[in-house]
Design a protein that fits this description.
It is a single chain. Helix content is 3%, strand content 45%. The chain contains five helices and 62 strands. β2 and β3 form a beta hairpin.
């Protein structure tokens, strides 16, 4: 499946068929539940846990100590006999399935919570003509229950309204039973497992998949060497790992297999643990790492164990015993959920001669060691766990005659900001780290390098001295305490004399090339010319990222010494996508609270992004929604100058100026253009015609020197009469052969603006190409130029310094880089032309997020939201006269972003004007000084 909703399949599908209610042919006990035949009452455990992030599991050097865990008084929940699985898609919404009616007359039911487990819906019966065995959700609306009808056929039922109502059972061809399912979040893809008929396979485990959230299903695929699947977890719509058992029930063997084509074919099963062992559950938080838990039955009492893989399921680690969970009559692990490749939580039970009690245990080193299990008071057994966020888990299981709910927390360290956010490679810079649970810190790291020194000021503040490094670029700062390690926050090492090198635009990735066939206008030959390393990229799933190799790729490879790159990033959202945003950030760090562009269903939205390069010269792109393809064009890069010569440094204009407005060539705008005082050399240039280009002069006018090697512009398609895109490049000889890239995408009627940095080609001219079928007026404003003299650039990880929305509009604290809610001058007050004309929004830039007081201009992504009508935004240095230019154009109800290069006054401030009501968000990507 492709994330824009396109499919290319050959299996047979069957549409939903109503079934007559009949009795399950085997028994009424849920398959896949705990081996001990107990049907307990419901228990929901809502765990408040804050986890860190580590790229891969590492060998532990000491035993993990169990932190104190405080369980709340259980809360009674009624309406079910027991719940056997739970799936959470947010910290508020979870779906669970179980039974009601007692052992001999039990029915399958589902219930959901939309307030984090405080209250649950009235149970609804599902698969009334059979029995359910598992449930999984792709979103808060779409969930699927799988099971078996009384005719011995595998079936599924789906909901599209969050569990309020369910479809008639869908028969899954050539299957006897379907008892496990996993849905990749925010996609239509789910994969399920079970047992096949004689025409499929009744001696090996089989899997089926759906690309449309359960309406139709593929034919079964066999996993050879695996008799039964007990768990599946996927890291993408193509890559999944399954665990289960092989051999007879008396001497089972724990095995695993993987698929790299979405379940069409599977690898042969490999052994995870020796005979007399079985696996119960698996969790794969990242593409290469999965951890599975199970039980060894070779001894007198059952003994829980875990094993992990760091190569996507091809090989597995030596099993590690999870001690403390086997009582006088044994015990076991039923379920595991991982937040990262380090932190996982597992639940199960311990049995004594007189009682059984629910147990919870976790690992903070990827499964090398485990904490001492903690008993959950008032529970007999814990069946399943789901942890949708780094601070929230839900567990279902059995209680002592009543359903109960409780919470617990582990105080792991977390970093909210670092100031400054960059330092020279020589180190020795004092960094202030702000966060929570920082007391008792035992280590501070800049990437893998320990801080030169650090001191704990309080539970929320640490000061550290940055160590020296050999290579500039992005890294992550982490804090380690006895409870664990925080997630990394972005930090950038810089070198002096960073200069900009413009290039003729070229494309390094177009994820539409992975579609078969590519969409109209995307030729196969074009796609094959992209760097091989990028051909297999797919659109980022919700909550996930893709990583692009930037240095050393493309038609004009960027040097490995580059610290930052200028990219034109385009989101191509399918009609089935949700509204969302992309964030471009250094590879190897976590996505920051910042955005690069916003998109809506069916829209094509570009934006210029200055991105700091991360690990190995790569950037990552995060998408908040699925069904979004990404196109990336390289425009230039920043790298240290060699010797004493600066190739290109930036000089900002004190006030942005207009270079071109093709509307001036018509009689409709003569007065307007006269006020603009446009250079006469450009006054008579007509609007570009169909599939044509124009050349305009950009040096020697508006104070731009003839020596300028590149210019920073805002290019606007003004009121176009048809859809298309504009491409700009240097006029080094001819404007008849535009490169395969785009800068501004526009739709009929709506004006669209985009920032560009384009080389002048030695001629002082640039080309603009119009792809639309009708003439399109173009407006060009200039914000500054590059030459051998000027200001040096300092890159940084994206950071938010201003958000005018109120706390209630955002739904929480406004987390600006300064760490203070409401940093903006007009925070909580929607901007309008009445206020900003006489008193523009003043944004303090320097002195925040590590931006020095010497900065002369800022590179920022500015986003307008809460728009009630069409308008435009202008940014300029505070104290200067407001220019008659624009940086962003938007339509009614739009959320629009654009990269802005704005000069700053001597106090490090810029002004923002909006011609209509809107709120404004400012995310910094770097500065000039």
């Amino acid at each position: 499946m492709y994330l824009d909703g396109t499919v290319s399949l050959s299996p047979n599908f069957r549409l939903p068929t109503p079934l007559k209610p009949q009795r399950d042919y085997r028994n009424n006990e849920p398959r896949g539940s705990r081996l001990i035949g107990i049907v307990g009452t419901l228990v929901i455990i809502i765990g408040m846990m804050s986890f860190g992030s580590v790229a891969a599991a590492e060998s532990a050097t000491s035993t993990v100590e169990s932190p104190s865990q405080s369980w709340t008084v259980p809360v009674t929940i009624s309406g079910t006999d027991a719940l056997y699985n739970v799936t959470c898609v947010t910290a508020s919404y979870c779906m669970a399935w179980g039974t009601v009616g007692g052992y001999n007359n039990s029915k399958s039911i589902v219930t959901f919570t939309d307030n984090g487990g405080k209250a649950w819906s009235v149970p609804v019966t599902v698969l009334s003509g059979g029995f359910a065995y598992d449930v999984s959700c792709a979103s808060i609306l779409y969930c699927i229950v799988v099971g078996q009808n009384f005719l011995h056929e595998g079936v599924a039922s789906y909901t599209s309204n969050g569990g309020k109502t369910w479809s008639s059972p869908v028969i899954i061809s050539d299957t006897v039973i379907i008892d496990k399912i996993y849905c990749v979040p925010a996609t239509g893809y789910c994969i399920a497992s079970g047992t096949g008929t004689a025409s499929a396979s009744n001696s090996s485990a089989i899997t089926v998949y759906t690309l449309n959230l359960g309406k139709t299903w593929s034919d079964p695929a066999t996993i050879y060497g695996m008799t039964n699947v007990s768990g599946i977890s996927c890291t993408a719509v193509t890559y999944c790992v399954a665990i289960g058992s092989a051999g007879p029930l008396s001497t089972p063997e724990a095995v695993a297999a993987y698929t790299s084509d979405g379940g069409r074919t599977w690898s042969a099963a490999v052994t995870v643990s020796s005979p007399d062992s079985s696996l119960q559950s698996i969790s794969c938080p990242i593409s290469s790492y999965c951890i599975a838990v199970g039980t060894n039955t070779s001894s007198k009492y059952q003994s829980p164990f875990s094993s992990f893989t760091t190569d996507g399921g091809k090989t597995w680690s030596t099993p590690v015993t999870i001690g403390g969970m086997n009582g006088a009559l044994g015990g076991g692990i039923n379920s595991i959920s991982c937040l990262t490749a380090s932190y996982c939580v597992a639940v199960g039970w311990k049995s004594t001669s007189t009682t059984e009690e629910g147990q919870a245990v976790y690992t903070s080193d990827g499964g090398n060691t485990w904490t001492t299990p903690v008993a959950v008071s008032g529970t007999d057994i814990l069946y399943a766990i789901s942890c949708p966020t780094s601070s929230y888990c839900v567990v279902v299981g059995g209680g002592d005659a009543v359903g109960i709910a409780t919470t617990y927390s582990i105080p792991l360290p977390a970093i909210s900001s670092v100031t400054p956010s960059s330092a020279p490679v020589s180190g020795r810079t004092t960094i202030t780290i702000t966060g929570v649970n920082l007391e008792g810190a035992t280590a501070v790291h800049f990437g893998s390098t320990p801080a030169a020194s650090f001191g704990v000021v309080s539970a929320t503040t640490i000061t550290a001295t940055a160590p020296s490094v050999n290579v500039p670029g992005a890294t992550g700062i982490t804090v380690t305490t006895s409870q664990g390690t925080s997630s990394p926050i972005g930090f950038v090492y810089t070198t002096p004399n960073i200069s900009y090198t413009p290039v003729t635009p070229y494309r390094i990735v177009d994820t539409r090339c992975t579609m078969s066939p590519p969409p109209a206008g995307i030729s196969t030959s074009y796609c094959s010319s992209l760097p091989p390393a990028n051909q297999t990229l797919s659109s980022p799933p919700a909550g996930g990222s893709i990583t692009l190799q930037v240095t050393g790729t493309g038609s004009a490879p960027i040097t490995s010494s580059a610290q930052s790159v200028v990219l034109n990033v385009t989101a191509v959202a399918s009609p089935s996508a949700h509204s969302g945003y992309l964030t471009v950030y250094p590879a190897g760090t976590n996505p920051p609270m910042a955005s690069s562009l916003n998109y809506t269903p069916g829209a094509t939205v570009p934006n210029l992004v200055t991105a700091t390069l991360g690990k190995d010269g790569a950037v990552s792109i995060y998408s908040s929604s699925a069904n979004v393809n990404v196109v990336v064009d390289v425009e230039g890069y920043y790298a240290p100058s060699t010797g004493s010569t600066h190739t290109t440094r930036f000089t900002p204009l004190a006030s942005p100026a207009r270079l071109l407005d093709t509307r001036c060539a018509t009689s409709a705008k003569p007065g307007y253009c006269n006020k603009e005082n446009l250079p006469s050399v450009n006054a008579s240039i007509p609007a570009p015609g169909p599939t044509t280009s124009i050349s305009i002069t950009v040096t020697g006018i508006r104070d731009i020197p003839l020596s300028a090697t590149a210019v920073s512009l805002v290019v606007t398609a003004a009121g176009p009469s048809s859809s298309g895109y504009l491409t700009t490049w240097d006029d080094s000889g001819s404007c008849t052969s535009p490169p395969i890239s785009s800068n501004v995408n526009f739709v009929k009627v709506s004006s669209s603006a985009g920032s560009v940095i384009v080389a002048t080609g030695g001629t002082g001219k640039i080309c603009i190409y119009n792809s639309s079928s009708t003439p399109t007026n173009v407006v060009v404003d200039i914000t500054g130029w590059f030459s051998q003299s000027g200001d040096a650039f300092s890159p940084t990880s994206p950071g938010r310094i201003c958000d005018t929305r109120s706390v209630s509009q955002i739904g929480g604290s406004v987390d600006v880089a300064s760490g203070v809610s409401g940093q903006c001058e007009n925070s909580g007050t929607t901007l309008d032309p009445t206020s900003t004309t006489t008193d523009p929004l003043v944004v303090q830039v320097t002195g925040i997020a590590g931006i020095p007081l010497t900065a002369t201009a800022v590179v920022a992504n500015i986003t307008v939201v809460s728009t009630s009508g069409g308008g435009y935004l202008t940014a300029w240095a505070t104290g200067s006269t407001q220019p008659t230019t624009s940086n962003i154009n938007w339509g009614k109800g739009s959320i629009v972003a654009n990269m802005v290069v704005s000069p700053l006054n001597s106090s490090g401030q810029m002004d923002i004007y909006t011609s209509n009501t809107a709120n404004v968000i400012v995310d910094v990507m770097g500065w000039y000084s």
